[in-house]
Design goal:
The chain is of the alpha/beta class and 293 residues long. The chain is built from twelve helices and seven strands.
């Protein structure tokens, strides 16, 4: 609270009269008796490096789609809230006790989600009052049927700010960890040399803006892929900016985007989603950032 200080500049002769006054309703007038507020310093909320509950929002990466079996979510292998010992999820690293992980984590991500779905996921998250919310979103916004159908950077930021507003309105003390969007061009680089990967991408229609016609290395195809990568960079810039505006938000500083992943970090079924090993690497990157002093 601001501290008030009252300064009295009265004639010495009046001091005795004021001391004798017993009325509790004495009023003052004039500038000499105006209270002056001393502004208090703003205090930045301290980041807790050991939150005791975690809610995860985002897309199929956080649902660990195709990590355990083909065309299926595998939330037990999720980097954020999973219970698979092989993955050693963020929640396992933070909470330790398997019973605590089961009781105090909520995976509210949805396979196929885009940033437009994030505000509703945030509303679901705040109902559990978690101490930490993790966010990994954006791959589906870039993985459109073509480059013209990608979510604009402006809309991406708007939906993200709406989701953060939902969290802050209900949970002013909850921490938020924001992951960067993975480098989709690196996916093409890693898989385009594999006949199997190219066939799966084409048949399943996986991320066509980036991965369609994966063996095409013409100038037009190269430009298309670079356009997708540039949009991902714009998304990551928005993620960083929105997070920077909130004292209890930590961005991963582009760690996921910059991670030097290889084919064994990718699902054997689609060469797109993280494998268990890939999920474990995501967990390690998040844990390092969240627990940093």
């Amino acid at each position: 609270m601001p501290v008030s200080r009252r300064t009295l500049a009265l004639p010495i002769a009046a001091v005795a009269a004021l001391a004798a006054c017993t009325s509790s309703s004495t009023t003052s007038s004039g500038p000499d008796e105006t209270a002056r507020a001393v502004p208090s310093e703003e205090v930045t909320p301290a980041w807790d490096t050991s939150p005791a509950s975690v809610a995860a929002i985002g897309d199929s990466i956080t649902r660990a789609f195709d990590a355990c079996s083909v065309l299926a979510d595998c939330p037990e292998a999720s980097w954020a809230t999973g219970t698979d010992a092989e993955v050693d999820s963020l929640a396992q690293r933070l909470l330790g006790d398997p019973a605590a992980v089961a009781a105090h984590t909520w995976n509210l991500a949805e396979t196929g989600a885009t940033v437009a779905d994030l505000p509703d996921q945030a509303r679901a998250a705040v109902a559990h009052s978690p101490e930490l919310v993790t966010v990994l979103i954006g791959a589906n916004d870039a993985c459109a049927r073509d480059v013209s159908s990608m979510t604009s950077a402006r809309d991406f930021e708007a939906h993200l700010r709406e989701a953060m507003g939902v969290i802050r309105a209900e949970l002013p003390d909850t921490e938020v960890y924001v992951s960067s969007v993975p480098d989709l061009l690196r996916l093409w680089t890693e898989g385009s040399g594999s006949t199997m990967a190219r066939a799966v991408w084409q048949l399943a229609g996986i991320c066509p803006s980036m991965l369609a016609d994966a063996d095409d290395e013409s100038a037009a195809a190269t430009e298309r892929r670079e356009t997708v990568r540039d949009r991902v960079l714009e998304y990551n810039a928005a993620l960083e900016e929105v997070c920077a505006d909130d004292p209890l938000c930590r961005y991963d500083d582009g760690a996921v985007f910059a991670y030097d992943f290889s084919s064994h970090h990718l699902s054997d079924w689609d060469w797109f989603h993280p494998s268990r090993e890939g999920q474990s690497e995501l967990a390690a990157l998040a844990y390092e950032r969240i627990t940093a002093d």
